């Protein structure tokens, strides 16, 4: 059975060579830590999902996507498919975007 989609839009975050955790947020029973770092003309992002609360309510799997986009439009938005499941309640997803300099960007997520 499918539940209602969980939609979320992050605050605008600036990424630089010293950046680590960009945002930690709990929304609809899912805690997500979003990290990012700029290095060697690319930005690498990681998301760690903790969904203990939903798992305790009987949710077996969450699927959806994350979209990363530059607030200034410096690169094309990137969509990342997400599937969270299994015995471990912490799941990691990593994405890399090649760009010449640090960025201000935002993340949209749609999970179900």
Report on this model:
By secondary structure, this protein is mainly β. It has a single domain (6-111), classed as Immunoglobulin-like, CATH 2.60.40. Helices cover 4% and strands 62% of the residues. The longest helix has 5 residues, at 52-56. The protein starts with 5 loop residues before the first strand and ends with a strand. The mean pLDDT is 73.
Helices and strands, in order, run as: EEEEEHEEEE
Q: How does the overall form come out from the CA principal axes?
A: elongated
Name the CATH architecture: Sandwich
Number of domains: 1
Radius of gyration: 14 Å
The share of residues in extended strands comes to: over 45%
Structural class category: mainly beta
Uncertain ranges: none
* CATH class wording: Mainly Beta
Largest β-sheet summary = 5 strands, antiparallel
Output the number of helix runs. Answer: 1
Give the beta-strand count: 9
